[in-house]
Amino acid sequence: MRSYSKLNCPEVIYNELERFIHYKDYIFLTRKLTDNNIQIKKYNVNDSFETVEKYIDLHGGKIIYGISILESDIIFEKEVFAVWESPDKTIHHITRGSNAKIMFIPNENPYAIPNGYVSDFYNFFSTKEESCIKEFIENKRYFQELISKEKNSLTEAEIKDICRYGNTSISERMTNKKIDKDFDLRNKILSRVKK
Fold first, then answer.
1. Exposed e or buried b for every residue in 144-177, given b needs 16+ CB within 10 A?
2. Distance separating alpha carbons of residues 117 and 148, to the nearest angstrom
3. Domain residue spans in the chain?
4. How far apart are alpha carbons 38 and 95 in whole angstroms?
5. How far is CA 138 from CA 7, 104, 130, 172, 176, in A?
6. Which of 73, 108, 142, 185 is least enclosed, having the fewest CB within 10 Å?
7. Three-state DSSP class for 124?
8. First to last CA, the chain
9. Sign of the C-alpha dihedral computed for residues 107, 125, 2 and 41 taken in this order
């Protein structure tokens, strides 16, 4: 699944994105800053939270909480995300392992940590017809629910599921293989993502 930015996302899809997000105040950020000294734990609600907190310890500034919009060929996803506000008040995307380009929507109170938010998805295609996309969304939602739990409340089976799904790249690869085998769906996707 390719990742799109505002600059190369076809207009018809970008219009759907604007309806999905329901916010007017958003910014596009490109990851520029990385710090190889930052090591994060295996299980946490979101890599960006811990990454930014550790970056602040090294460089000062504040953590800004909000929602990141991830784009692919088949879905939009809203997920909780954190970015770094530098001491000079500029905002930076610094989390490795996430998309290099993101659309970021700060929370109404950007300095308050969000509670209990699980990703929301917008499917470009009918879930009744495209079962592999429905399965992909269900897997992503389950993974998000698991990583939003407190680490010490996870069962052994849930920890195994987190390890199995990783960052859902396995689920993504399996979904891509299913799409490749479904010529009608693949052609629908190609016709939508072409400019």
1. bebbbeeeeebeeebeeebeebeeeeebbeebbe
2. 8
3. 11-106, 126-193
4. 10
5. 29, 24, 13, 12, 15
6. 108
7. coil
8. 17
9. positive
Each residue's pLDDT, cut to its tens digit, for the chain (195 residues) gives 444 454 456 677 777 777 788 777 888 888 876 666 666 655 454 678 888 988 998 889 999 999 888 777 788 888 889 999 999 999 999 887 777 788 899 998 999 988 767 778 888 877 666 788 888 888 888 877 777 777 778 888 888 877 776 656 677 778 888 888 888 888 888 887 765
Contact criterion met (CB below 8 Å) for 119 and 78: yes
Query: Tokens 């089976």 belong to which residue?
Result: 157
Radius of gyration for the chain, computed over Cα atoms and rounded to the nearest angstrom = 17
Report the amino acid identity of residue 144: Q
Q: Which pair of tokens denotes residue 146?
A: 């698991």
pTM of the predicted structure, to 2 decimals = 0.74
| Token pair recorded at residue 80 | 């909780």
